[in-house]
Every structure is written in structure tokens, then in C-alpha cells.
Sulfonate transport system ATP-binding protein
Amino acid sequence: MATGTAGVVTARGVRRSFGPATVLDGVDLDIAPGEVVALLGGSGSGKSTLLRVLAGLDPAAPGSYTVSEKHAVVFQEHRLLPWKRVLDNVALGVTDRSRCTDALAEVGLADRARAWPIELSGGQAQRVAFARALAREPALLLLDEPFGALDALTRLRMQELFGRLRARHGFAALLVTHDVEEALLLADRALVLDRGVIAADLPVTLPHPRTPDAAGFGALRRQLLDLLGVPLPT
Ligand SMILES: Nc1ncnc2c1ncn2[C@@H]1O[C@H](COP(=O)(O)OP(=O)(O)OP(=O)(O)O)[C@@H](O)[C@H]1O
């Protein structure tokens, strides 16, 4: 990995096999600074594998790729350390304590700084996970279904929070999701991973803030479902 390229992600020909099974078969991917890219695809299509490769968590994958060193990862599970208080979780590896307090305030949890992770709801814990990522002042967020385990209402609130944080901080993101609406609400482009390659790249040019009832949303939803092999009846 290295920095210095114009994009926050530049990947060419990324491959990954597990035994005889080829999961990534030459993935090319570019993400520009500030761009939010959703990554969709069937179960087992390799979305998490690609995200782990880009995050540097899977050094065995061949191919050439550069990823901004200023990246942070948020997973579906919060992955907070249970023996550290909330603020100490946010502060892991960050020397500037005030940045951590600010990040916690930005996700609306300033008053939970001294709480233990076990005292938080699932949605709050995921907010802390985002605060921990934000405190690193990332140029790129690598997000593996970060709202996937939340109930529908909490998910909507988190999507709204993500939109606000993005508008304020201007980070880029790769967002792995199963949720077509989420992709269309949050992303500038939606990619479909299929048989080891990026099989489709759909620009999402709707204005912000977005809602599912906005003009053009339904047509894009139909198009994306089609690309995912789940066409709606006409
Ligand atoms: N460490 C591993 N060892 C062996 N096989 C693996 C490993 N990691 C992933 N795989 C396999 O690679 C394939 C892709 O997995 P991956 O988790 O990347 O898919 P995904 O698109 O994220 O799936 P889902 O949408 O269900 O989360 C699967 O068949 C999985 O079993």
C-alpha cells in the first residue's frame, strides 16, 4: 500500500482465492477523494473479501492497489473493547484526546463518554464505532455493512447521521451493503460484484438530501435490482 496517487483507492487486477475457489478474479476499482461508492452483490460474491484486502487485513491477495493510509474501517459489529470505557475505545491509537471528545459529540454521545460498551444499545455502540473512525480524520472509510445489524428505524437514523458526517468531513467511503435503498440514499455510484469482477457501475446522480420518494429514485432502484439479477415485475 502507498499514498500519493490522486484517488483514495486505485486497485488493478485484485485477486483472491480460497483453495480452489476464486472469489476475486481481477477487480479494478477507483475511488476519488470525497466519493461514496456502494458495493453490492449476491451473498458470497466477495464484497467483504475485497474490503478486507483494501483495508490491508488480507495481505495474501495479489494485484496492484494503493489505498489512502488515512483510512478507517467500520464493521457490522461494533468491535468495541468491553474492558475500556466509551471514550477510551474512541481514543485507541489516537493521541489527540480533544479530537476523540469532538467525534463522540458529533455522533450525539458526548454524555456517554464514561459508559462501558455493555451499557450501550446496538445503535449507540455503532455510533461509537463511527466516532472511533472519525477521530482518525480519515480520507477514506471502509464500511462493511455498518448498519446491517440494526433495526429499521435505527438504520434510518444512522444513514442520516452518515450523510451529515460526510457533508461536514468530506471523506470518501466504500460501503458494502445488501440494501439497494441504502446504496441509492448514500452513494455517488453503486457497483455490483459478480463472479469475481465489478460487473456494473451505476452512477447515482440524485441531489441531496435524498428520500426514496424523490423523482428518479424508483427508476434507479429498478435498474439496480435488475443489475443484481432481481428484476421487479414490469
Ligand atoms: N478466510 C476464508 N477462508 C475460506 N473461504 C473464505 C474466507 N473468507 C471468505 N471466504 C469465502 O469467500 C467467498 C466470499 O466471501 P465474502 O464474505 O467476501 O462474501 P460477501 O459478498 O461479503 O458475502 P455476504 O454478502 O454473505 O456477506 C465465500 O464463499 C466465503 O465462504
In short: Confidence is low (pLDDT under 50) at residues 1-5. Residues 18, 23, 41, 43-49 surround adenosine-5'-triphosphate (CB under 6 Å). The longest strand covers residues 21-31.
